[in-house]
């Protein structure tokens, strides 16, 4: 809510010294210390006797405490970094590291308390335990979402809220709760934030929440987030563009409706921009051709013989051009994309025109790979890429009635057997 102060996150860890003091106070002033008969196990915080988790009675624990008390300062120094998994463990540790005589004195004092005083102690302890309770994921998500909805929250608080949501939405159940808790709208709104870091992290959270999750994919798509993410793909910031591509990939993966929306938002023009802009990094270009290869494979698996984005001939030629890129990993990903695109392309003159220059790019790559085979460290990888290159070349020749020579087919078979047999 506007004007409210950002809510503080609860922490569940305590320094060992604080834990010791706190746990000892709980033990000494708990009604359990005086409410049970002498000699009974006094481990309960709420006045009900129960067994120690260790199976030891109080006498054994106190005896161990006396022994540890004579152990010198080394063990004490080692306890400073201790952390506790539960209040029960904290109590047991505190008792074991306390002065037995003082414990007995305090227990006798508590035994003299009246019923009203004991009840008051119980209520105080219950209240304290409630404050120390570890909040659930849903509660933590609500706190983070409240910070995003708080117009007076600082930039730092917003960044922290987004970072916490990124971790919290990884489990699919938490991601599914994001819409129920009112988190999707503020997340999508943050894509328009003036701060690049906020925009980038928001896209990252949306991508994480929607990854392999059709429910969240469709929820985000209904809110129109794809339009803003496509615009972010044009960013001159590599980090922002990369996270936008990550979110887009998560939203349209295995989602035909998402792919249709991406086309309607002219998303492939954005992908072409990344491929054709010299200043863009190889990392971004790899992401683009990988995304395209996936979309093409999805269309093929759905039984489609054509894809709407193939009408963008400039985009396809940009992908073909990546086969001549200086990065071998990018070249391999471009080959995979072209292989799938060829299967979706008609074998007419328009299709041939779209892949103009492919022969030259494949030949240039062949010469490059031939040189790399002399490098012992890269020989195996170069041969694998050569098999893929040859496959694409033969597919291209067969597609457009350019019958591959018998020598080329024989060479391909030998290469394939050499690498995979």
From TrEMBL:
Pfam families from the UniProt entry: Fes1 (PF08609)
Domain of life: Eukaryota
Keyword Signal: yes
Position of the signal peptide: 1-34
TM ranges: none
Keyword Magnesium: no
Keywords in alphabetical order: Signal
Descriptive protein name: Nucleotide exchange factor Fes1 domain-containing protein
Native source species: Urochloa decumbens
Occurrences of domain Nucleotide exchange factor Fes1 (ranges): 87-178
């Amino acid at each position: 809510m506007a004007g409210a102060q950002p809510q503080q996150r609860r922490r569940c860890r305590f320094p060992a010294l604080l834990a010791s003091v706190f746990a000892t106070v709980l033990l000494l002033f708990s009604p359990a210390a005086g409410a049970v008969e002498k000699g009974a196990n006094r481990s309960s915080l709420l006045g009900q006797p129960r067994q120690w988790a260790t199976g030891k009675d109080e006498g054994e624990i106190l005896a161990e405490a006396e022994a540890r008390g004579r152990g010198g300062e080394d063990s004490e120094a080692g306890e400073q970094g201790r952390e506790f998994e539960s209040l029960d463990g904290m109590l047991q540790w505190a008792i074991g590291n306390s002065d037995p005589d003082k414990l007995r004195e305090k227990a006798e004092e508590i035994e003299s308390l009246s019923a009203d005083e004991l009840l008051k102690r119980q209520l105080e302890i219950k209240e304290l335990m409630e404050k120390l309770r570890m909040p659930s994921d849903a509660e933590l998500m609500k706190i983070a979402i409240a910070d995003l909805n708080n117009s007076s929250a600082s930039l730092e608080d917003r960044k922290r809220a987004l970072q916490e949501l990124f971790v919290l939405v990884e489990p699919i159940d938490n991601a599914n709760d994001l819409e129920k808790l009112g988190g999707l709208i503020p997340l999508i709104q943050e894509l328009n934030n003036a701060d690049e870091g906020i925009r980038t992290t928001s896209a990252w959270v949306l991508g994480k929440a929607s990854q392999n999750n059709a429910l969240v994919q469709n929820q985000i798509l209904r809110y129109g987030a794809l339009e803003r993410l496509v615009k972010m793909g044009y960013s001159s910031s590599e980090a922002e563009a990369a996270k936008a591509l990550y979110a887009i990939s998560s939203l349209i993966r295995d989602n035909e409706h998402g792919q249709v929306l991406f086309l309607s938002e002219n998303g492939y023009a954005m992908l072409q921009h990344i491929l054709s802009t010299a200043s863009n990094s190889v990392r971004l270009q790899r992401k683009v051709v990988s995304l395209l290869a996936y979309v093409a494979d999805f269309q093929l698996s759905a039984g489609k013989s054509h894809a709407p984005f193939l009408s963008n001939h400039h985009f396809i030629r940009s992908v073909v051009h990546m086969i001549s890129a200086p990065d071998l990993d990018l070249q391999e990903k471009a080959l995979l994309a072209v292989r799938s695109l060829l299967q979706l392309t008609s074998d007419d003159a328009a299709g041939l025109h779209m892949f103009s220059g492919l022969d030259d790019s494949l030949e240039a790559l062949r010469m490059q790979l031939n040189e790399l085979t002399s490098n012992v460290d890269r020989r195996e990888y170069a041969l694998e890429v050569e098999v893929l290159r040859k496959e694409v070349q033969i597919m291209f020749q067969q597609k457009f009635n350019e019958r591959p020579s018998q020598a080329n087919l024989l060479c391909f078979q030998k290469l394939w057997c050499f690498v995979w047999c």
